[in-house]
Amino acid sequence: MVRERKTARKSSARKSTYVLLDSPYMICMKYNEDIRHYVYRLNLCVEHFHYNVLEGQSDYLTPERRSQILLHTLRVRGPYSQLKKKYADLYIEGEPNDKYYYNGRWIPIVEYLEKAMMEAKREFDYNLDDDEEEEPLENEARESQGENDG
């Protein structure tokens, strides 16, 4: 007679809590990748995950979830950090935040966030160019002062 060992744990306690490998949450933007290409690649991954892995039993195709996935996969540092901080409260306790609805429509859809990402990238690059231009001018001023002193 074989003795079975039973535990007091629920069966739900044994479920895995890790993120699936095909999950769109695992995607990250490559260095210098075009924003449109990244959003397209992310949308393909979301659709694949929804239809093939979860067999159509999810809310991944809703505009709210797509926006949340896009913001979640952005890097913490760099040009998109301000965008990520701005929409940090997009989802509260697993539910879309009501403040982002206007007349029953979700405001920060993926296309809107894509344009915001382009603007953030443009502003970030513009600020980098300004910083690079200021440094040589300071060096030239120091050199000209050194020539005048000697």
From TrEMBL:
Residues 126-138 have a biased composition (Acidic residues). Residues 139-150 have a biased composition (Basic and acidic residues). Residues 124-150 are annotated as: Disordered. This is Uncharacterized protein. It comes from Chenopodium quinoa.
